[in-house]
Amino acid sequence: MSNQAVDVEILGKLTRVNCPAGQEESLIAAAADLDNRLKEMAERTKVTNEVKLLTIAALNICYELQTKKYEANDEQDALTERMEKLTASLSDVLSKVKHGQQ
Predict the structure, then answer these.
(1) CATH architecture group of domain 1-46
(2) Do the Cβ atoms of 13 and 38 come closer than 8 Å?
(3) Which residues contact 56 (CB under 8 A, 6 or more apart)?
(4) At CA 68, angle to CA 48 and CA 80, rounded to 5?
(5) Model pTM score
(6) Domain boundaries, the chain
């Protein structure tokens, strides 16, 4: 699959980014999300230094991603536990059925 060059605007500056063909809309949406976050943060915090804004935004995004990973792991653990309980229940029932047939 080839890459496409896509221009995105963040904080009023155009940046050309390569992305896989067919993913342009997702990249543009991600850039718009980042731009909105940065603008909101600048308004809320009165921080004007772009490097500082980008650093804070990156930390916030990493925190959100980490939180989602922990939530996904917790959900996976709960699902695994439920599957193990179901497997044990099924094994118990099958064992009782086998013993009842003998």
Answers:
(1) 2-Layer Sandwich (3.30)
(2) no
(3) 41, 45, 47
(4) 170
(5) 0.70
(6) 1-46
Judge residue 72's burial from the number of C-beta atoms within 10 Å of its C-beta, 0-12 exposed, 13-18 middle, 19 or more buried: exposed
Model confidence at 101: pLDDT above 70: no
State the pairing for strand pair 3-10/13-20: antiparallel
Rounded distance, CA 57 to CA 31, Å? 12
What's the CA dihedral at 64, 67, 73, 74 to 10 degrees? -140
Residue 31, both tokens: 């850039």
Amino acid at 70: Y
**Which amino acid, residue 101?**
Q
Query: CA 17, 2, 18 angle in degrees (round to 5)?
Result: 5
pLDDT value at position 19?
Answer: 94
